[in-house]
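Lecture notes, unit on protein representations.

Consider one protein chain, 75 amino acids long.
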Amino acid sequence: MVMIVSPEKYRNKTILKEAIKKGENVLVEDPSIFNPRVFMIKEMRLGEVITVTNHPKRSYFVKIQRKVDGTFKVE
């Protein structure tokens, strides 16, 4: 399921990647009809991987992984 980040705050992939690299705690919304949730990326489980987009534009997609050491890998 693709999750959502603020299109106003993270206008492009580079801005989102830099924010995470600087340690910003990005707000993510999971619009799932089965298990909807709103969370900060620092609440992700170790090893969890999510894909986010800037809904409703959907002009970019970013994969965020919380590695077992607690750091983030952003692609």
